[in-house]
Amino acid sequence: MTTLLQIEASARGQRSLSRGLSQHFSRTWLSHHPDTRILHRDVGRCPPPLVSEVWIGAAFTPEPERSPDQHQVLAASDELISEVEVADIIVIATPMYNYGMPAALKAWFDQVIRIGRTFSFDLARGDWPLEPVLEDKTLVVLAARGEFGFEPGGVRASMNHLEPHIATCAHYLGATERHFISIDYQEFGDQRHERSLIQAHQKVEDLVDQLARQPAALLSA
Fold it and tell me: Has this prediction a pTM greater than 0.85?
């Protein structure tokens, strides 16, 4: 059985375009795979705790040596990582805030990218000592952006700190296959925005169809 982890990062509710894309993805996916297990994590409404000095100390203390207080500090991280570990597909629905990811989504990444859990560290590897522990996960990023031209070669490509940042972080969650779909022109509210909205929803359907045709073993390793 495939497990889909659905992350919502928007601070908005019904007005959120990224939430609309995410809901469209899950509905379309279930029409192909009705037995899919869906885990839902709304970091936009319930942000994870921020990393602190105490958290860092606990994370870098070997597990057998951690105090009860250190285990408690890492409890939220443990819960979030457990969802990532069992997920075959990670769907992140997020707005672009100030050309990057929302603080709540960054806090989620900071909680789940953790030494000894999702990545290993070994100086014997030379200049690349970090390696992901997890593997073979599919990442789908569904974004909503107020402006336009953030795609490679676009007029605002150099200002896009959302998708590249997510892709870099997701490497350490074992996301070897990555897909990005976005809605643009939101702040303009014109026909270009309407076209972008329609096209993004169609791209979601096309992507689900593409993923649904993959061998089951690839989706539920």
Answer: yes
